[in-house]
Design brief:
The chain is 97% helix and 0% strand. It contains one helix and no strands.
Amino acid sequence: MSDKNNESTDLEALETRVDELIRTVDMLKTENSALRNQQENLVNERAQLIEKTEQARTRIESMISRLRAMETRS
């Protein structure tokens, strides 16, 4: 009888552990998905910032060229 109790207790402990592992895997899947979305958003934001920086650089270089042209005309 005590063997059955031990087996039952072992089985319950195993079931509990498996349930915990399932919850952990579900939580990690959710977290992983959120992190992937966050990474995608950050990559997109970075690309936009790089584009804005390039536009600003182009505008500044254009202004410098115009200023130099104005200086030479004077």
